[in-house]
């Protein structure tokens, strides 16, 4: 009986460590993946209404290129009563006609807010 309990406890701790990203970090990573996948519905579901025009313009700029995320990891670097700030490492690579352009994600600090339990990306600062 004790072995079963210890095994379950170890499994719970392992699961908790694997999902250690904050909700704000997960929101930004999801947003970046949706951009790379060119999934407009997912992008819209992960952003603040005030950010929609800019986010969709960014999505449109990727429409004719092949995109992928490279070595992306995000970290929450601040929080206040208005939300959280998240920075990411890695890049979005955009390829077209044999030419690849790399967009360094470390140049942005994303603003993320909790809206009724959903964490939404509301823009970024350079």
Structure commentary:
β4 (109-115) and β5 form a beta hairpin. This protein has 126 residues and is α+β, with helices and mostly antiparallel strands. Strands 1, 2, 3, 4 and 5 form a five-stranded antiparallel sheet that branches. The longest helix has 17 residues, at 2-18. It has one domain (23-125): Nuclear Transport Factor 2, Chain: A. The termini are far apart. It has four helices and five strands, in the order ααααβββββ. The chain is globular and about 45 Å long. Helices cover 38% and strands 40% of the residues.
CATH fold-type name: Nuclear Transport Factor 2, Chain: A
- Seen as an oligomer or otherwise, the chain set is single chain
CATH class reads Alpha Beta
Number-wise, the strands total 5
Low-confidence sequence ranges = 1-18
Distance between the termini: 55 Å
Rg for CA atoms = 17 Å
Provide a concise account of the structure shown.
With 126 residues, the chain is of the alpha+beta class.
Fold blueprint:
Layout: H1 2-18, H2 23-37, H3 40-45, H4 52-61, E1 66-80, E2 83-96, E3 99-104, E4 109-115, E5 118-125
Antiparallel strand pairs: 1-2, 2-3, 2-4, 4-5
């Amino acid at each position: 009986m004790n072995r079963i309990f210890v095994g379950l406890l170890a499994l719970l701790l392992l699961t908790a460590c694997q999902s250690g990203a904050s909700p704000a970090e997960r929101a930004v990573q999801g947003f970046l993946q949706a951009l790379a996948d060119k999934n407009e519905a997912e992008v819209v579901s992960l952003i603040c209404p005030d950010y929609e025009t800019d986010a969709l313009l960014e999505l449109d700029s990727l429409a004719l290129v092949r995109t992928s995320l490279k070595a992306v990891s995000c970290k929450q670097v601040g929080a206040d009563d208005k939300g959280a700030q998240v920075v990411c490492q890695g890049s979005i690579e955009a390829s077209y006609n044999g030419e690849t352009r790399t967009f360094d994600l470390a140049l942005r600090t994303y603003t993320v807010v909790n809206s009724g339990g959903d964490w939404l990306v509301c823009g970024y600062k350079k």
